[in-house]
Hints:
The structure holds 2 protein chains of 2 kinds. Chain A is of the alpha+beta class. Chain A contains 5 helices and 9 strands. In chain A, the strands form 2 sheets. Chain A has a 5-stranded antiparallel β-sheet, with no helix packed on it. In chain A, strands 5-4-7-8 form a 4-stranded antiparallel β-sheet, with no helix packed on it. Chain B is mainly alpha-helical. Chain B is globular and about 50 Å long. Classes of the chains: A alpha+beta, B mainly alpha.
Amino acid sequence: MTDTPLPPDDADEVLAGEYVLGLLDLPERSAATARITRDPAFAARVAAWENRLSPLNDAYPETAPPPGTLAAVEARLFPKPARRRLWTWGAAGAVAASLALWLALTPPQPDYLATLAAADTGLTFQAQVAGDTLTITRIAGPAPDATYVLELWVIIGDAPPRSLGLLTDTTQTIALPGAASGQTLAISQEPPGGSPGDAPTGPILALAPLAPT
Amino acid sequence: MEDDPVARLIEATAKADRAAFRSLYGATSAKLMGVLIRILGDRAEAEEALQEVYTRVWLKAARFDVARGRGMTWLIALTRNLAIDRLRQRPDAPHDGDELLAQVSDPTPRAETRLIASGEARRIQDCLDQLPPDRATALRGAYIAGRSYADLAQAAGVPLNTMRTWLRRALLALKGCMGT
Lengths: 213, 180
């Protein structure tokens, strides 16, 4: 049998089917995943294959997971914010002085928190919003290398994502007036310099809603 | 719309409803655990992967679109994708042209070859039955166990490019047969 090239439309259809079947090797899979995020027509083909093949899911038996799994997931998703500790000093004057210093150095109590974790790479950012200021810190995972950058977005309601800039440092503060519960932060992978347009072009690595503290 | 309680729980999870997230876990975790064990073939890794799955479910719930399919289909797709990514990232993952381990050959019919009886499932079964049997077996093996082209070619004893051609044609035939 010869492997004649397929017409382009069939080629896309087959690629979507191969992706859903899981046939692709790692580089091909990564390319297909990136395409799903930027090509709605291709994403629709993938969803159609997922639906078409879903009756095969009957073959998977149910197996009870170990107890404690949900608790472990919740501990990962909803970390308790670290409590600030006021330590006591012997002399009242020292307490007052240190308290003044503490107030000067400590940012105000955050209003909202979000943990953005990319499941594949372990890349994790902790974001907190106090007043009009967003502080975001990379707490796990690799810094981007020279081939790509990370861009932060905010998604408000049904509006398209709005860029909040590139995440270049381990900790950054960014102005975010009007932050509110239910707004979502997202991090996308972009070419050097960031997304060339108004919307993310690369894969969304992580996203999380702002949760009131 | 057909009643789909799992879809409703995913939509509530997208609104950061933690109680709904817990209910969703209770309703679906045994099935997703079954998917992970079947594809990863290792219970300990499946247990760890299940935590990743529900972390992603929480993070990505807003991307679920009820117009595109059922909640359980979305969850299983997410789970299969994570499991297959892990398989392909294993250091010993077979790539095109690599030497293959004999253990990937698995001629024993498993659950996937059992008769699928329910209505919607019947249609894909009928369409798979119209394919040459070795191709239908390969297609099921790819979907259910996450096998790569290289695995499947080895198991069927055919060259890699033959397996590619078989399955690409099988996909187009299946789509035509199912008419969707």
